[in-house]
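Q: How would the structure tokens look for this protein?
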Amino acid sequence: MKAFTKTAASISLVGLVVFAMMCVGAVAAPATRLKVGATPVPHAEILEAVKPILAAKGITLEIIEFTDYVTPNLALNDGDIDANFFQHVPYLESFAKDRRLNITYVGDGNNVANSWIEAALKLGFRLRIACPEGFEPDGMIVARAKAEAPAQIRFFTDPFEAARDSDIINTDAWVSMGQEEGIMRRKQELFKK
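A: Here is the predicted structure in token form.
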């Protein structure tokens, strides 16, 4: 189970890194060095396993270790690191609300997108959701967000527009469990841009 968890986390991180590199590429020349903040165990260990995968894609991964969970967020906000490996939703929600951060979710409008919307409604942080047409979050949740918090929660189809001026960009697996059928069509739609 531990090996599966590390593998799943590594695959998720590679996906997030590739997505982040695509977003950065829309604004500036592609970076060849990526600085990621992480706690020593297990996050830095997982990143060490990812290094060869990224190196094969021409990306040098620099791991910056932190012994607390606040400093990496501040370092990310200040631009000292490119990504923060460690994050969990309750802490992130509190951190975002306290510091008035702009959080963006990009990807399929699945359970994770719906959870972000529910959390933003409940906790009051600013949220942007970017999903391609045909992959929107649950319609009832979207209608509620538009009615209750139209300035706080915004919806986009263009991920680059949604990500502009964001402090944190979050994503999820591009194809959720149970949605494996039609995977190629889903990938083509999700990666159009």
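The longest strand covers residues 33-38.

The chain has eight helices and seven strands.

Upvote if useful.
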